[in-house]
Design brief:
Layout (H helix, E strand, L loop, with lengths): L2 H6 L12 H10 L14 H14 L13 H11 L3 H22 L9 H11 L4 H19 L8 H22 L1 H6 L16 H5 L7
């Protein structure tokens, strides 16, 4: 896969906003953190190890670095801690637990820290295999669940739907965090550290060679 070409042409299609002081500080703080020795601030240590493996399954090393090499795993953990509301944090923890429980059951292993990329990849693939109609139904179920929780009611979410929610959210955050990284911003997207002339209307191919602007 020519990820460099894909990222060049990818806009902010995920609906996330990155240009805020909190998020920028998260991105900045990830720059000097050694990728192999980071300590999760929101997730447990074994969950952080799983997160690092999963983001690299989603965006492995190709002609550009893997997701963990630009510290997307650290970014996601700190975003969860510093930005997510309590209900979102609880939902992430719950859905991740359902996901890792499935990986443990399928692999025959007992400890989350023993899960390998080979154990996690088939669960991730199965959790994202649904067509648009099936996804729409799952989103309705997820919305009903989150509304019930917000209203203070007791609610349960099916394991399969929980795994889909985790995998889908993780995929979105991984792509978002990757695009927000310093490396991708400066080396893959259109990067202009000192803004120049403002062009209100122009041909994208001529202005940036078809690249999306780095934020």
């Amino acid at each position: 896969m020519d990820r460099r070409r894909v990222l060049k042409n990818m806009g902010m299609s995920l609906g996330y906003m990155v240009a805020t002081p909190t998020l920028l500080s998260i991105v900045q703080s990830c720059k000097s953190e050694p990728a192999l020795t980071w300590t999760p601030e929101f997730l447990a240590q074994n969950e952080g190890a799983v997160l690092s493996k999963l983001v690299d399954i989603i965006l492995p090393k190709t002609d550009t670095p893997s997701a963990s090499e630009v510290q997307v795993d650290i970014f996601i953990d700190r975003f969860a801690k510093d930005v997510m509301e309590k209900e979102q944090q609880d939902f992430l923890k719950m859905s991740m637990s359902k996901f890792t429980n499935k990986a443990l059951a399928d692999s025959g292993k007992e400890k989350v820290e023993d899960l390998t990329a080979e154990d996690l990849e088939p669960v991730l693939a199965a959790s994202l295999k649904y067509n648009k109609d099936e996804q729409a139904e799952m989103f309705k179920t997820i919305n009903s669940y989150t509304k019930a929780i917000a209203d203070g009611d007791t609610a349960e979410l099916d394991d399969e739907v929980s795994r889909f929610a985790f995998a889908n959210n993780l995929r979105g955050m991984t792509i978002w965090g990757y695009k927000a990284s310093e490396y991708v911003g400066e080396n893959v997207l259109a990067y202009l550290p000192v803004p120049g002339e403002y062009v209100a209307c122009g041909d994208l191919q001529e202005l940036t060679e078809g690249k999306a602007w780095s934020l």
